[in-house]
Design a protein that fits this description.
The structure holds 2 protein chains of 2 kinds.
Chain A: H1 2-29, H2 34-68, H3 76-100, E1 104-109, E2 120-123, H4 130-137, E3 141-142, E4 144-145, H5 148-151, H6 153-161, E5 165-166, H7 172-181, E6 185-188, H8 206-214, E7 218-226, E8 244-250, H9 256-264, H10 270-293
Parallel strand pairs in A: 1-8, 2-6, 2-7, 3-6, 4-5
Antiparallel strand pairs in A: 7-8
Chain B: H1 3-18, H2 39-53, H3 68-82
The chains are: A alpha/beta, B mainly alpha.
Chain lengths: 309, 83
């Protein structure tokens, strides 16, 4: 029945694509007040999006907490799968709604790579909604959340039963390795918080430690968000003049740990290996961001990282 | 272990674990802000100090440690207690 309701709403969304296209066209023809009108439309759409997302989250939480949670005879692990499925649907619904309302356009390249189980997905973090793209398109994914969500009784059960991990846990690295060992994917933003620029990334070393402890290769997900919106500190109504285009690329898995180990030596302490691994990871992301910022160089394969004279 | 030996041992451990140049490992250097030592590093440092001192050191003793000087002070205390 849930699937049915979802298919119904998906059809609604698809139906409204044409509607938003035609309103776009309408605003394009109008000359002087076009910018203002279009801005007003998108402001309203943004307000609607956040309201719908808020209400949707509330309804789903109520359903999970009041109906699913007390269900007798269902193992907790099974309920956990349900909770994660609902979070995925919410995330997917929200980004599709934003797209349909013309707030942004997104595209995921090699999205099929997200379907393999037990992957360590590492992404840069330009905006508030980055996680939603990846959660919305990955079957059974674990996330790292703020400790505050475990302190709040309303969200604590959801976070616990979804088996999400707390960011300040002393056992975070071991827990992450367990999750990956169980065949669930894990999403990590090594920056720990949203950035201001993809060319000056500051990576914490948690992702490297998780890669070292789990032995699982890293699947880098680069997120190019242009023009930038929903950055750290931006209010929801600060909408850029142009519609943001978001391009996510799911890159092939690679092993930054062995690359770092060659350089660090076999008997290097884990603290050193984590530093070198973090550098390898970070360099890969900066290299990508540099190519994205300078599209011409993207057509020169094998070009070294130094700018040409 | 004299104070000089203790300093030298701590310096060597931090150089090895965190790839820091020795001139940056000064008493007033803050672990997180100045030396980029995170919580996982701290756990590894405590393990290393246990090995160096041959004593069991509870992690809780490092709760209020902020600088290299603080670490040295805890290490000195631990070594004193053992005598």
């Amino acid at each position: 029945m849930v699937a049915f309701a979802l298919r119904g709403s998906a059809a609604l969304w698809l139906g409204s694509v044409n509607l938003s296209r035609s309103t776009d066209a309408l605003f394009d023809v109008a000359s002087a007040p076009a910018g203002t009108l279009r801005h007003a439309w998108r402001l309203g759409a943004a307000a609607l999006c956040f309201t719908v997302f808020g209400i949707g989250t509330l309804l789903v939480s109520a359903w999970l907490l009041l109906v699913v949670r007390p269900l007798p005879g269902v193992p907790d692990a099974r309920k956990g799968v349900w909770v994660r499925n609902w979070i995925r649907r919410l995330a997917r619904g929200f980004i599709e709604l934003m797209q349909v309302l013309g707030l942004m356009r997104y595209r995921i390249e090699n999205a099929e790579r997200l379907l393999s189980p037990g992957q360590l997905l590492v992404a840069n973090h330009p905006s508030l909604i980055d996680a939603l793209f990846i959660i919305g398109h990955t079957p059974d994914i674990c996330c790292i959340v703020k400790r505050e969500l475990l302190a709040n009784p309303f969200t604590a059960w959801l976070v616990r039963s979804a088996d999400y991990l707390a960011n300040d846990s002393e056992r975070l690295v071991d827990e992450a390795a367990r999750v990956l060992g169980d065949g669930r994917s894990l999403l990590v933003f090594p920056e720990g918080t949203r950035n201001r620029c993809d060319l000056a990334l500051r990576f914490k070393r948690g992702a490297a430690h998780i890669a070292i402890a789990s032995g699982v290769p890293v699947v880098p997900v680069t997120i190019d968000f242009s023009p930038r919106a929903l950055q750290k500190g931006d209010p929801w109504h600060a909408i850029p003049r142009r519609v943001s285009r978001i391009r996510l690329i799911v890159h092939p898995p690679f092993d930054p740990v062995s690359e770092a180990a060659v350089e660090a030596g076999a008997d290097a302490p884990v603290t050193v290996l984590a530093r070198r691994t973090t550098r390898v990871l970070r360099d890969a992301f900066v290299e990508h961001a540099r190519r994205f910022a300078d599209p011409q160089s993207a057509h020169e394969p094998g070009r070294p990282g130094t700018p040409s004279a | 272990m004299t104070a000089d030996e203790r300093h030298a041992a701590l310096l060597a451990a931090m150089e090895r674990l965190f790839e820091l140049p020795p001139e940056r490992i000064v008493p007033q250097a803050r672990l997180y802000e100045d030396l980029d030592i995170d919580s996982i590093d701290a756990v590894n440092l405590v393990i290393e100090l246990r090995r160096l001192s041959g004593r069991t050191i509870g992690a809780e003793r490092f709760r209020d440690v902020r600088t290299v000087g603080d670490v040295d002070a805890v290490l000195a205390q631990v070594l004193d207690e053992g005598d």
